């Protein structure tokens, strides 16, 4: 009986650990036709071997009119990354992926579309000041949020 309860306890701990990992290693955002993300902040762990960013465009407008992406950068770099990204144009999804200030960037999607990207948690520093935003021209003012990074 003692062995059985120990086994149940261990199973419970394993499940809790997985739930925690899933929470801190993935960011799920929704973008809409009103130029908004559903979240103003998100938290990930720098210890995640891989962090997944998922973006679902829940609107109906095409990417050319109301495209959304998710770009992650240090908060102090956001304005410059956004400006340079817009300059790269729609064909490059309004983000220069060769820019070392771009920590991660999804594709640009339109209404009804979904995109994901993964990057190593090691690209973020625990306690650092990061922002996620959409680099479609004019969107970053409304479409941005704080990315908190834990250990
Ligand atoms: Cu957008």
From TrEMBL:
Gene3D superfamilies: Cupredoxins - blue copper proteins
Keyword set includes Zinc: no
Keywords: Copper, Electron transport, Metal-binding, Periplasm, Signal, Transport
Listed InterPro entries: Azurin, BlueCu_1, BlueCu_1_BS, Cu-binding_ET, Cupredoxin
CDD domains (UniProt xref): Azurin (cd13922)
Blue (type 1) copper domain boundaries: 25-149
PROSITE patterns xrefs: COPPER_BLUE
Pfam assignment, any one: Copper-bind
Transmembrane segments: none
Cellular compartment(s): Periplasm
Signal peptide as annotated in the record: 1-21
Chief localisation class: periplasm
Known role: Transfers electrons from cytochrome c551 to cytochrome oxidase.
Name of the protein this chain belongs to: Azurin
The organism's taxonomic lineage, starting at the top: Bacteria, Pseudomonadati, Pseudomonadota, Gammaproteobacteria, Lysobacterales
Gene symbol of the encoding locus: azu
